[in-house]
Amino acid sequence: MKNNTEHTDRRMTAMSIVSLVLGMLTLIMGGAYLINHFLTERAYRNKWRDYDDCGLM
Q1: What DSSP state is assigned to residue 53?
Q2: pLDDT in the model for residue 14
Q3: Which of 5, 23, 30, 47 has its CA 20 to 30 A from that of 40?
Q4: CA distance 5 to 15
Q5: Measured between alpha carbons, how far is 30 from 46 in angstroms, rounded to an integer?
Q6: CB neighbours of 57 closer than 8 A, spacing ≥ 6?
Q7: What is the CA radius of gyration of the chain?
Q8: pLDDT of residue 10
Q9: What φ, ψ does residue 53 adopt, rounded to 5°?
Q10: Residue 3: its pLDDT value, please?
């Protein structure tokens, strides 16, 4: 019975670690997406800022 309990505990620990790593990766990838999105939008706005006063927009 003790051997089965140890196996279950190790399995639960491994699942907890995998869940933690996947959660952290999700947060990191979400943050990276947001940073990329904001930097891309800022670069786009800066590129077209000179044309705002010429009457094309």
Answers
A1: T
A2: 87
A3: 23
A4: 15
A5: 24
A6: 48, 51
A7: 25
A8: 83
A9: -90, -5
A10: 65
Taking phi over 0 as left and psi of -120 to 50 as alpha, with beta for the rest, 47 belongs to: alpha
3-state secondary structure 7-22: HHHHHHHHHHHHHHHH
Each residue of 1-57: pLDDT tens digit? 456 777 788 888 989 999 999 999 999 999 999 999 999 999 999 888 877 777 655
Greatest distance between any 2 Cα atoms in the chain: 81
Q: Would you mind telling me the total number of residues written for the chain in this entry? A: 57
Question: CB of 24 within 8 A of CB of 16?
Answer: no
Q: In which residue are the tokens 């491994």 written?
A: 14
Tokens matching residue 23? 């959660």
Query: What is d(CA 24, CA 18) in angstroms, rounded to the nearest whole number?
Result: 10
Do residues 51 and 57 make contact, with C-beta atoms less than 8 angstroms apart? yes
